[in-house]
Each structure stands twice: as structure tokens, then as C-alpha cells.
Amino acid sequence: MAQGPLPNDAGPVSSGATSPRDGTPPRPSNVSINDILRQRLGVDLREFAGANLSGEIPLSDDLVNRLIAERLANHPQIAALRIQAQEGDAIAIQLLPRMRMMPPLRIAARIERQPEFPQRPLLVLQWSMPAAGALALFAAPVLSYFKAMPRGIRMDGDRIAVDVHELLRAQGFEEVAGLIRRLEIHTRPGGFVARFDLLVGP
Question: Which end of the chain is more exposed for a tag (fewer CB within 10 A), N or C?
Fold first, then answer.
């Protein structure tokens, strides 16, 4: 898998505001789409019950990296993690461990399975370190820290599963997550694109 150069300014993860209990960022308040429509347009979402909405949202690398930094704030082993979207649902990842003697790790990932809403809202990626060589021996303990990633992200062997519903809920978009009937995440140079179908319920 071809990898373009990643930015060299992958500094430490921004600490931001954190919870006093576990050091993780506080959960944002839920965003009410119905309240926004009522305030801005004077209509109630329930008046559109049964409506189907389709579209796509571009997500730049910068935006995704900022969200990752917020989720990894104060992580005990990972100082920074930056991604770079590429063609063909491929993603280049640079992971900077907090261990002083450990150099940045370059990881290649590819989207393997799309979320299936609402039953199985998991985005599954397969990862590898094709150019690691002997460094892979030292990288194994660091990569094991993925098993203790923030809620909604888990690692099993060479697969990483991202619970999209949980991540949306963590950003305050639980109401939006309940409307999703189809969601696909694809990559292109410079960012991602999310294609969706929403169904407005009663």
C-alpha cells in the first residue's frame, strides 16, 4: 500500500478540558436537531415523519485529527496520533508514543467493512506495518495500548473496530445517530467523505 509522507509536526495531543475523574474530555451536551429546526425555521421535525434524507459530508484530515486529539487527551502511552486519508479507502497513520526511546510508528490501514445501521454500527479497519522491519519487535508493546483506547474504539489482532454510534453520541449527536439508516465512510486525498441516508421517525 502506497503511503504519502505524513506531516512532521505531529505534536503532543492537546490536553483541553478534561474530566476530573478519569482524565477524558467531558461529554458534550446532546444536540437537538428538532430544537434547531424549530428555532431557525419555525418547523417541527415530527412534521416530516417518514421523510428520507440522503447526502454526503466531507471531513478533512485536519478535522479528523482534531477530534482524535480530543479523544486521546492525556493518554498515558500515546502522545499523538495523526492520520492522512489516501485513495482507495486507505489511511496512513503516524503514532507517536510517549516512550522517549521509541520513534514514531507508521501504520498502514484500510477500511475493510462499513457500518450497518442500526444493528451493527461498526467501521472495521485492517492495519499493518509493512516497512517496520526490526522495529516491529519494539512496536508490539506500544500497539497493544490500542486495546485500552477510548470508549467506542477497540482493537482485535490486526483489526480496529470503531463504533460510529458511540462516537456520535460522545460528540453530542445521539439524536442524529438514531436517524441513520445507512452510513459509508470513504477516503480521498486530504480527507474523508461520509455518505448517509436518514429516516425521520414519528
Answer: C
